[in-house]
């Protein structure tokens, strides 16, 4: 599994469904450069079980992300037609109707490969034919990308393990606090709490005040 933290996020252009109903060809994260932080997350498959809980949970908190100047973008190896159908299926019928942030179609699996979250790989069988080993879907990867297009945080879960939207927001807060104040954020730091200078004296001061 590649570590992309500190590196430019892989670029891509693909079709996405935006606002739950519009096809946008050549969708790219580059549109956010210099403007917004991005939470770019992968999920395995449309019309499944854990995936809608995550997608709808992001939608439930979309105002919190937008207030922080963060764009949320989802991606799976399904087609844009599949995304569209799922987005227009009522939630009580297993759909995700009401989701407004973009869902990118990665049917060619190149985006998942470049972010190194594809749950499998291509190989050759004994007859020399190209086969796919594993599951041709994306792991539950999440990447926090800054305004310069650099990955600052990543987490990758196995297929059965849903993610925490609260933790995604906490990492946004930590990154933005560091960018604004220049102070580093200790374990379990949350917005509104004291951070510390990345010096021996700063650590000592933080530890001394932690119990107060």
TrEMBL record:
One short Pfam name that applies is AhpC-TSA
This entry's Gene Ontology molecular function terms read: thioredoxin peroxidase activity
The main place the protein resides is cytoplasm
Per the database record, which ranges form the Thioredoxin domain? 3-177
Q: Which GO terms describe its cellular component?
A: cytosol
Active site located where? 51 (cysteine sulfenic acid (-soh) intermediate)
Compartments it resides in = Cytoplasm
Which BP terms does GO give this entry?
Answer: cell redox homeostasis; cellular response to stress; hydrogen peroxide catabolic process; response to oxidative stress
Keywords attached to this entry: Cytoplasm, Disulfide bond, Oxidoreductase, Peroxidase, Redox-active center
Q: Which PANTHER family match?
A: THIOREDOXIN PEROXIDASE, THIOREDOXIN-DEPENDENT PEROXIDE REDUCTASE, MITOCHONDRIAL
What family does the Swiss-Prot or TrEMBL record give for this protein?
Answer: Belongs to the peroxiredoxin family. AhpC/Prx1 subfamily.
Q: What is this protein for, i.e. what is its function?
A: Thiol-specific peroxidase that catalyzes the reduction of hydrogen peroxide and organic hydroperoxides to water and alcohols, respectively. Plays a role in cell protection against oxidative stress by detoxifying peroxides.
**Name this protein carries in UniProt:** Thioredoxin peroxidase
Organism in which the protein naturally occurs: Pontibacter diazotrophicus
Output the lineage of the source organism: Bacteria, Pseudomonadati, Bacteroidota, Cytophagia, Cytophagales
